[in-house]
Amino acid sequence: MARFFNGKEIELLAPVGTFDIFKEVIQAPCDAVYLGGPSLNMRMMRKGYNFSLEEIVQATEIAHELHKKVYVTVNNLLSEDDVEEAKDYLRFLEGAHVDALIVQDYAVVMLIQEMGLNLLVHASVMMNVHNLETVRLLQELGVTRVVTSREMDLQTARYIWSQSGMELEYFIHGDMCVAHGANCHFSSAVFGMSGSRGKCMKPCRWEYRVKKDGNIYPADYPLAVKDMYMYENIPELIESGICSFKIEGRMRDVNFILLLINSYGEAIDRYIEDPIGFDRTVDSDKLHENRKRDFSTAYAFGKPGLSNMNRRYEGTGKFYSTGKVFSTPTAERSLTIGRVAELKERLAQVQRIEQSTRPELSVRVNNIEQARMAIEEGIDHLYLSGDVYLPDVPFTKKNIIELSAIKGATKLYLGLPRMMTELHFEQYGELLSRERLGIDGIVVTNSGAIHAFADKGYPMVGDTSLNIYNHLSAEMYAGLGIQRLTISPEMTADHFTGLLEHSTLPLEAVVHGSPTVMYMEHDLYANTEVQESVGEENNHYVDNSILVLMTDKGENPVYRDQHGRNHLTMAKEICYLPLVKELAEAGLSHFRIEGATYSVSQLRAIICAYKAAIMEQTSTGELFEQLDPVYAGYTLGSLHFN
After folding, report:
1. Which parts of the chain span the membrane according to its record (predicted)?
2. What is the value of pTM for the model shown?
């Protein structure tokens, strides 16, 4: 089965969660299906909605007899323990003759190349592909299709397609995440269950109160977004260069999926047959009547604002409108002496291939005052944030010149925005192409930035948003020119130590601070600008000017950056101070403090404590006792979990 418009193939791509569902869906007017196997995919919370190896073979044979395609999701991050299993699984999938794999981790791309396998690769939405430079890198790596970032508008999609010719797949219907793909670590921090490894516990579906300026606002479910609905915009999708129309729903029942396939399939065919006389609304009423949540076109035509927030069928954190509650508000775990002792024992077992020298201290700052102080304190590496939290203003060229003149032995790095638009690439490309800046490197936040700026002559440090989870992806980035990599903040203790054991590259980890656990285009501050206050209450740990999401388990500050994006941070502070010696002996070469949210004096105290620990001037136990938390206490984040 194939559909064409102006000589361009259009594919309707359907989800199937079980073999029984597949047998009905494959007979419907879709062109391809996607499914998950028994492991290594993003639906590991519901194993009943994945195929066995035998079922994958049977499904592929049936689909090919009908001239349709089967794509298999191998789309979670791989731990070191997963690598050997992945090799066997990839060999099996090649033998099963599946049509392509949907992949998040660059390690899978590397394995396919190293093993010489004949498997096509589609970049998962979890790669968060959102700019042309990332697409060009993926093309060089042999990737043949990109599932675009959920935040990509159709105008950007059309530009990327016209400039690259890359096949683009776009979600047209179904459940959407509020955060950028692979940029939500909330579930990992609270439960040790990684959203990037198919085990998200959905804290975005909790009921929150929104608080700012001493006022409480009636947001209810401020992170719960509406379902995607593009039924009435098929012409715009085709015109934008989208080749694959993707329906979300591998855990939906067969009748619901068939309704969507039949409605969208019939509409696409009607448009191809008569684009001038096309009626956009034939099945609109039917789709609205059978919706699970309310509908939105999300980011297809620009930022949707509060209109994208769902207020229907949420209940008390209910997910998929079935009454099932994935989780209820849960406090971040507090650092305990017992857990520290367990981690020390585990770190002592790490067999590092190369012994490291004295670890070095890195600090990310949000303003020029923090930067001057950090230089005064003699830190090793100073990162100027590319996502500056308001009310601070972005670092200017004048700031860079000033800091480079006084930095002394401190190495100075220019940080890039986490998500970079085409405008960002023009701006930073121009800055980095002029006369040499007095910086010692750049902190790169996405693979497109590596591709664009590797030839500018500046050393590159890989940021947390690259989500490094195994030595294979680390080596891939090193091959692209990254000199030092920051470990994924989602790593549990076993995975963290596993990477230390297997990687020979310099590795950095965030050891202190209140890092971003959810990064989003959605602007929560808009709640306070358009809604009336329903009560009064001051913030407990941050200034009242900072918005917080609160439950009965804690307050999570949310910072707005200069790009208008929101960073939901932890209620407690990450603190690895008691583990400094053991981390260094296990091979962690760089310790990072996320300093953006601290005052200058608070950050100075933290820097001094870690410097003393690194230099072994004072015992870490004594230093820890002397350092009081700024926020709701200390936590080990994902390291609380094995």
Report:
1. none
2. 0.95
